[in-house]
């Protein structure tokens, strides 16, 4: 019996660019989309075919993709708003045309494209639909108006008939169409048993992420600097690149932190994995997150997360049972870390972190995607 969705439509802001006879897009997005496409007979994407910024690209593995062209548009300046108004009739026409073709409509939120799609999909209440909300679903968080509008529509069962909305985290009081959903990086075959670590020796931390203001890499470096200043030997392995790289290197040099901080830049997944296996902690002091990928990846290998309470992080770390939640203030963060560090059995916490994260593998994510397209999905969070 063929349980595949016959015609799958993806609507996304991520550009679909034709290059050397293949369609290319943002690498992490491509990895997940190939899973969705695996369970459809026909695959089409509605997205911009240009993008104003350079992104890490790779080709889709699926060879039979077709695309609906729409121009890139934004609402971040008066000129861009005027352009968007001019483009809007064509964009809406393309969306109606694409949705009419599809058996299953899948939206990638939040974004400007998905904001328009949230309104247009109301015209197709009989169609099977799903939405992956890859941003911060926390109802109490401070978010742009466009994101709030998308959340308001997606939370309303009347406007999202036949739609499953997949969100990061398990939030109380949600409507029946909202389903917790977990992304994953590692496969079942990459699981490792828990190995207790010695927390009386020099503490090794891993930061893996973009060097951008939202990830607060400088605060992370200052956190390590302060631990050493307070007599707790600590070292940071810093992975990633971005616009703050020069600032990071300058701070390390100015404060003579070369013995405490090692800057690795972008590295292969296997290199980061090897570092996580050796480290005591992974650290992410973000301002905001959708899915805190770095936290989940560290937990998978028994790294105890040190993190701020953004997005679904508090839920991921069991409200502090399998991770250390700190404030985004340097003194408060260091103070609280030292309290937990000196009063808790960190190996028990780290083992709980590993056991939780290893529930959510790439294999399980693929099975969940398949069940969404078959209409049998039940959240197992």
Automatic annotation (TrEMBL):
Enumerate the UniProt keywords alphabetically.
Answer: Membrane, Transmembrane, Transmembrane helix
**Is-annotated flag, keyword Transmembrane?**
yes
Q: Where is the Glycosyl transferase family domain?
A: 190-334
Q: Where are the transmembrane segments?
A: 68-93
Q: Which InterPro entries match?
A: Glyco_trans_1
- Any Pfam family the entry gives: Glycos_transf_1
Q: Does the keyword Plastid apply?
A: no
Task: Report which superkingdom the organism of origin falls in.
Answer: Bacteria
What are this entry's molecular-function GO terms? glycosyltransferase activity
Q: Which PANTHER family match?
A: GLYCOSYLTRANSFERASE
| This protein's name | Glycosyltransferase involved in cell wall biosynthesis
- Species of origin reads Formosa algae
């Amino acid at each position: 019996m063929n349980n595949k969705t016959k015609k799958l439509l993806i609507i996304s802001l991520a550009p679909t660019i034709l290059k050397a006879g293949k369609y290319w897009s943002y690498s992490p997005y491509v990895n997940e989309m190939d899973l969705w496409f695996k369970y459809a007979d026909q695959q089409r994407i509605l997205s911009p075919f240009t993008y104003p910024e350079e992104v890490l690209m790779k080709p889709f593995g699926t060879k039979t993709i077709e695309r609906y062209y729409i121009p890139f548009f934004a609402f971040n300046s008066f000129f861009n708003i005027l352009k968007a108004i001019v483009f809007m009739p064509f964009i809406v026409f393309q969306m109606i045309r694409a949705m009419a073709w599809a058996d299953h409509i899948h939206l990638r939120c939040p974004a400007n494209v998905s904001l328009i799609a949230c309104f247009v999909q109301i015209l197709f209440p009989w169609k099977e639909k799903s939405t992956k909300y890859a941003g911060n679903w926390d109802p109490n968080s401070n978010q742009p108006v466009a994101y709030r509008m998308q959340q308001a529509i997606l939370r309303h069962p009347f406007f999202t008939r036949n739609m499953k909305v997949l969100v990061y985290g398990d939030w109380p009081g949600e409507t029946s169409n909202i389903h917790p959903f977990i992304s994953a990086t590692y496969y079942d075959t990459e699981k490792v048993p828990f190995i207790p670590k010695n927390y009386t020796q020099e503490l090794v931390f891993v930061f893996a992420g973009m060097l951008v203001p939202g990830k607060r890499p400088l605060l992370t470096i200052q956190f390590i600097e302060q631990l050493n200043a307070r007599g707790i030997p600590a070292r940071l392995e810093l992975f990633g690149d971005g616009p703050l790289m020069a600032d990071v290197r300058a701070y390390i040099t100015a404060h003579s932190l070369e013995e405490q901080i090692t800057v690795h830049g972008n590295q292969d997944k296997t290199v980061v994995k090897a570092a996580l296996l050796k480290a005591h902690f992974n650290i992410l002091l973000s301002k905001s997150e959708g899915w805190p990928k770095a936290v989940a990846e560290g937990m998978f290998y028994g790294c105890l997360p040190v993190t701020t309470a953004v997005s679904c992080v508090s839920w991921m770390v069991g409200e502090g049972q399998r991770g250390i939640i700190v404030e985004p203030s340097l003194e408060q963060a260091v103070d609280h870390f030292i309290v937990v560090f000196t009063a808790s059995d960190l190996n028990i916490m780290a083992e709980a972190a590993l056991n939780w994260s290893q529930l959510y593998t790439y294999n399980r994510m693929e099975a969940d995607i398949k069940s969404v397209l078959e209409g049998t999905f039940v959240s197992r969070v």
